[in-house]
Amino acid sequence: MTTAGSRTRKGEQTKARIVEAALELFRESGYDDTTMRAVAQNAGVSLGNAYYYFKSKEHLLHAYYARIHAAHAEAAAPALENESDLHKRLLGVLKTKLEVIEPFHRFSGLLFRTAADPKSPLNPFHEDSAPARQEGTQLFARVLEGSRVKIPKDIAQKVPHLLWVYSMGIVLFWLHDDSKDRARTHALVEQSSELVVKMIKMLSNPLLRPLRKSALKLLNEIDV
Amino acid sequence: MTTAGSRTRKGEQTKARIVEAALELFRESGYDDTTMRAVAQNAGVSLGNAYYYFKSKEHLLHAYYARIHAAHAEAAAPALENESDLHKRLLGVLKTKLEVIEPFHRFSGLLFRTAADPKSPLNPFHEDSAPARQEGTQLFARVLEGSRVKIPKDIAQKVPHLLWVYSMGIVLFWLHDDSKDRARTHALVEQSSELVVKMIKMLSNPLLRPLRKSALKLLNEIDV
DNA sequence: ACTATTATTTGAACGCGTTCAATTTCTGGA
DNA sequence: TCCAGAAATTGAACGCGTTCAAATAATAGT
Questions:
Q1: What is the CATH T-level fold of the domain A60-221, as seen in this structure?
Q2: How many angstroms separate the CA atoms of B199 and B83, rounded?
Q3: How many helices (H) and strands (E) does chain A have?
Q4: Alpha-carbon B121 to chain mean position
Q5: Residue B112 has pLDDT above 70, yes or no
Q6: What is the pLDDT at residue A2?
Q7: What is the percent of chain A where pLDDT is above 70?
Q8: Mean pLDDT for all residues in chain A
Q9: Which CATH code, of 1.10.10.60, 1.10.1090.10, 3.20.20.70, 1.10.3720.10, is assigned to B1-54?
Q10: A130-139 CB burial, b ≥16 within 10 A, e <16
C-alpha cells in the first residue's frame, strides 16, 4: 500500500505520462501510424512497461473518448442558451458535435471498429456505455424541452432517445465522409434535422396516429 | 493473353485453391485464428503467392461475403416467386437474410468488427464493396418490381438503395442482439418492414410532396 | 526454335502488437 | 536498519500481416 497521505503511487504518474505521450502522437500522426514503441519512447519508458499499464493499444484511447464527450457537452451549451426554435436548437447541438469530433476523423477506423464490436465496452449500445448513452439522451431531452414544440404524450418518452440514435447515425455517416470540409455530412445535418423537426411537428397530426402507434409498439417490442 | 479456347489461365486455378483453403480455415477456426501462412500452406502455395492474388487477408473474406450473398439470393427467391404483396415480399427477403446469416453470429465479433472499419475493404460502404452493394440494391429493386405498389417517379430510383441501407441497419441491430432466438431482431424486422411499406405507400400522397422533395434534395446533396 | 515479355512463384525480411521471464525499485513491518 | 514481498520496469522474443527483389514458368512474336 501507499502512504496514507499520498494519493498516487509512482505508477500512476508513469501511467499518466504514457497517456499523454499516446494522445500527443495520436493527434499528430493518427492511430494506425502511432506505434506502441513510439508511445513508450515518447513517455520515456520501455515497451513492456506500456503494456504493464495498458492491456492493449486500443485501451489507450479510453482517455480520448472521455475528452470528446466532455468537450461536446461544454461546446453545445451556448447553442441552447437563448434559442427556442427547435430546429435551430437541434442544429446547434449537431453542428457543435461535428466541430468537436472533427479532429478525430483520422481515428475513424478505430472508433468505428470498436464502436461496432458488440463486445467492446466502447460500443455505444453496450451495457457499459449506459452512462454515456443516458447523457446523450438527456442532452436531446434538453433540446426538446427548451423549445415550444409539443410532443404527443404517448411517444414523448421515446423521442429524446430516438434523437440520440439519430445523432449516432450522423456520426456513422461522418465516419465514412471523405468530402472536403466534411461537406456531405454538413448537408446531411442541415437537411435531415429540418426533416426530423418537420416529422416531430407532424406527429401530433391525428391522421398519423396509427403510424405513431405502430412505431410505439415496435419500439416497445425491441426494447429500445 | 491466354489461348483462344482456354477460359482460365493457370493463375485462376491457383486463386481458386487459395480461396477454398481460406474458407475452410475460416469456417473451422474463425477469421482471427486463421493465419495467412496457414492459408498458403493449406493451398499448397507460398505465403507471398497468396498475396499475389489477394491484396490482404481481408480481401479473402470478400469470397465469404459473396457466398453469403449468393446463399441469400437463392434462399430469398422462393419468397419472391408467387407473391405480390410488398410487405410479404420485403419480409420474406429479410427473414431469409436472418436465417442465412444466423450461423455466423458467433463470429460476428471477429468478422464484422473489421467489416465496420471505414478503411476495411469488407466495409459495405467501401469502394471495394461496390459489387456487393449493387447486388444488394438490385435484390430490393426486384422486391419492389414484383409488387403492385406504385413508387413516385422522382424517388423511384433511390428507393431500392435506401431499402438496402435499411437492411444493413437490420444487420447492425442483429449484430448486437443476444436475445434468445434473436427474438428482438425478428420483432424489429416484422414491425419495421410494416412501417417501411406504409411509408412507401404514403409517399404518393400529394400532401407529402414537399416532404418527398426535401428528402430527395437531401439524398442528392449528400450524394447517396 | 529462339527470344523478349509477361505472369507467376518464392522465401527472406520488416515492422508491428503483444507476451513474458527476469531484473530492479519501492514499501511497510520487524 | 534490514528484509521479504509487492510493484514497476526491462528488453528479448514470438507470431502475425505484409512487402519485395529475385527467380522461375508461361506465352507471344519472329
A1: Tetracycline Repressor; domain 2 (1.10.357)
A2: 20
A3: 11, 0
A4: 13
A5: no
A6: 34
A7: 84
A8: 84
A9: 1.10.10.60
A10: eebbeebbeb
What is the mean pLDDT of the segment spanning B64-68?
79
When comparing pLDDT for B53 and A29, which is higher?
Answer: B53
Q: Which is it for the CA torsion A116, A120, A122, A124, positive or negative?
A: positive
Q: Looking at the partner chain, which of A125, A185, A191 has a beta carbon nearest the beta carbon of B176?
A: A125
Q: How far is B224 from chain A (nearest CA, A)?
A: 10
CB within 8 Å: B175 and A115: no
Q: What is the rounded CA–CA span in Å between residue B192 and residue A217?
A: 10
Q: Are B31 and B111 in contact (CB under 8 A)?
A: yes
What is the residue whose three cell numbers read 456505455?
A129
Phi, psi of B58 (to 5 degrees): -65, -30
Residues of B within 8 A of A120 (CB-CB) are 113
Is A193 in contact with A91 (CB distance < 8 Å)? yes
3-state secondary structure of B214: helix
**The three grid cell numbers given for residue A94, joined into one nine-digit string:** 449537431
Contact B118 A176 (CB under 8 A): yes
pLDDT band of residue B210 (cuts 50, 70, 90) is: confident
Q: Average pLDDT in the B160-174 region?
A: 90
Query: How far is A12 from chain B, CA to nearest CA, in Å?
Result: 32
Residue A90, C-alpha cell as written in the block: 437541434
Helix (H) or strand (E) holding B155: helix B153-156
Rounded to whole angstroms, the distance from the CA of residue A14 to the C1' of nucleotide C27 is 18
CB contact under 8 A, A175 and B118: yes
Closest listed residue to residue B200, CA positions, set B167, B159, B165: B159
Task: Name the residue among A171, A134, A166, A124 with its Cα closest to residue B176.
Answer: A124
**Candidate CATH numbers 1.10.3370.10, 3.40.50.300, 2.40.50.1020, 1.10.10.60; the one for domain A10-54:** 1.10.10.60
| Chain A closest-CA separation from residue B150 CA (Å) | 20
DSSP single-letter state for residue B43: T
Residue B76's Cβ-side half-sphere holds a number of Cα atoms within 13 Å equal to 25
For residue A127, what is the nearest residue in chain B, using CA coordinates?
B176
Name the residue with higher pLDDT: A116 or A30. Answer: A30
Whole-number Å distance, CA A5 to C1' C27? 14
B56-221 folds as: Tetracycline Repressor; domain 2 (1.10.357)
Domain ranges in chain B? Answer: 1-54, 56-221
Q: Which residues touch A59 (CB under 8 Å, ≥6 apart)?
A: none
CA of A197 to C1' of D16 (A): 50
